[in-house]
Amino acid sequence: MKAGAVAADGEKTKSATYSAGQIFVPPPAISGVQNSTGTPIPEPVSVSPGATIYLVGNYFGCKAPNVWFEHLHNGRIKQTKCKILKNLFTNTYPDPKGKASCMNCTTGASRVPVEIPAANKIPDGGFLGFIVIDNGLGRDTFDLTVE
């Protein structure tokens, strides 16, 4: 299996190759960002360092994805790992019990809670940044400025 790379300008790049007879699992797709109460954060999305946000989208499969923040520093793209706070799976979305995260393993609809790195971990305040989610098969990006 081979996953596609993320373009340096943050453009969404998705690709994957599959062997014959293999079950197709789609690459992830970020459809939006929510705050802790579930309210969508309108674009352009700007958050504070250390904030908790929720990535909403299709991350089919019951494995916690990898998430990191990419930002421009001295003309170069840098990566800072984000912390997934919890990855609890339920059969409904959103979770009626108010759990931190939920995923419907049939449809792939999910809400993954992510802690943005602290200010001292992001040079230049994270301007011109974006967040990346990777489920092991592919990647998706979402424009996000941390300031």
Describe this structure in words.
- It is a single chain.
- The chain has 147 residues and is an all-beta fold.
- It has a single domain (29-146), classed as Immunoglobulin-like (Sandwich), CATH 2.60.40.
- 0% of the residues lie in helices and 35% in strands.
- The protein has no helices and eleven strands.
- The chain has strands at residues 29-34, 46-47, 52-58, 66-73, 76-81, 83-84, 102-103, 109-115, 130-134, 139-143, 145-146.
- Strands 1, 3, 6, 7 and 8 form a five-stranded antiparallel beta sheet that branches. The chain has a four-stranded antiparallel beta sheet with strand order 5-4-9-10, with no helix packed on it. Strands 2-11 form a two-stranded parallel sheet.
- Strand 9 and strand 10 (139-143) form a beta hairpin.
- It is globular and about 40 Å long.
- Mean pLDDT is 74; it is low at 1-5.
Amount of helix: under 10%
CA radius of gyration is 15 Å
Uncertain residue segments:
1-5
Number of domains: 1
CATH hierarchy, class: Mainly Beta
Class by alpha and beta content: mainly beta
What is the topology?
Blueprint: E1 29-34, E2 46-47, E3 52-58, E4 66-73, E5 76-81, E6 83-84, E7 102-103, E8 109-115, E9 130-134, E10 139-143, E11 145-146
What's a quick, concise take on this entry?
The protein is an all-beta fold.
Give keywords.
147 residues; mainly beta; Immunoglobulin-like; five-stranded antiparallel sheet; four-stranded antiparallel sheet; disordered N terminus
